[in-house]
Amino acid sequence: MASTIQIKRGSGTPGSLSYGELGVDTENKILYVGNTGGSVIELARNTIDGVDISDGANTITLAATPGTITYTNYLPPSLGSNGQFMMTDGAGNLTWSTPAGSGDVSKVGTPADNQVGVWTGDGTIEGDAALTFDTTSDTLSIGATNDGTLVIGGVTIIDNGGASTVSLNNIDSIDATTEATIEAAIDTLANLTAATSLAQVGTITTGVWNGTAVTVAYGGTGATSLTSNAILTGNGTNPIQAESNLTFDGTTLTLTGDFTMTGDLVVNGNTTINETTTVSIEDSMIKLASNNVNTDTVDSGWYSVYGPTPNYAAIIRDATDGIFKVWAGLTTEPGATANFGEGALAQLDAVIDGGSY
User: Fold this and answer.
1) Does residue 257 lie within any of the structural domains?
2) The dihedral of CA 141, 146, 151, 156: what is its sign?
3) Domain that holds residue 14
4) I want to staple 25 with a disulfide (CB 3.0 to 4.6 A). Which of 30, 132, 164, 242 is the partner?
5) Is the dihedral of CA 272, 277, 281, 287 positive or negative?
6) 93 to 81, 96, 267: CA distances (angstroms)
7) What total number of domains does the chain contain?
8) CA angle at 319 for the pair 316 and 325, rounded to the nearest 5°
9) Surface-to-core class of residue 61, CB atoms within 10 Å of its CB (0-12 exposed, 13-18 middle, 19+ buried)
10) Range of lowest pLDDT (86-90, 107-111, 223-227)
11) For residue 213, what are the β-bridge partners?
């Protein structure tokens, strides 16, 4: 190695120096050393720019950030403690600091895999056997036997309450995947019991309920399909059935077939139509004009229709004179009154015994 050191001199930063070559700015008293690639490193009392620190095998380079940023950092006055890190206060003062919440990590009970760590009041992380996460199946388990509560946003969603059943609360909607998962879980529950009455079934307001038929009290399992407007009737121990020949559309009750009545029949309508071939009446008296009390304003009697116009023949009591009249040739069907201006008295063949009364 040569014993002579040559230093280039000049005013200002040298344009270029060979690697290891020295140069000095005699005007500003700054020393420069040549770096790789033709660049220079400035060496001054308060400035180290682009310095490589090497032990011969490993190299650490210190370089300023490009630009016009200038700042000063003051190192801590001590070495600090094991596990501490260097922290700045934003004004250039560097100090040693301990990470928040750091400390010993321990577990409650016997340590086990998949326990979830939680911070405790003394600044340590502890594991709990009642709170685990299985990374293989991505399953989060909350609570031990007959215990466990899930609270989201201050609202209790799942609450075991120390019982053997789990309550779901405050759930407005779930996605299709979650719904399918819950339905599959419900299908496998062993503690679901059959409802013994319709009151225990409850109300399903939206969605589709998939499951087996619910047992209905007093026999039967309920009809699965119904004819429109059909009335349901019992069928012994078999399911109830919809009668196609007995319907009600909200206004009219329609019966196709025979009608048997053992009690009283009360008709409050204005018109009664009897479409029968023969009428058999057990009563010995027929009461007509039952509302004609304390008055005498309606005609009463019997009439029949004959063709072809049609015409009407009748035995009617005329309210105007109180006389029963055998009449024919009426063209207007009698109602509360008969129009005796139509037709005339009809012939009556009768045997009168002329007895005394």
Assistant:
1) yes
2) positive
3) 7-62
4) 30
5) positive
6) 18, 10, 105
7) 4
8) 30
9) exposed
10) 107-111
11) none
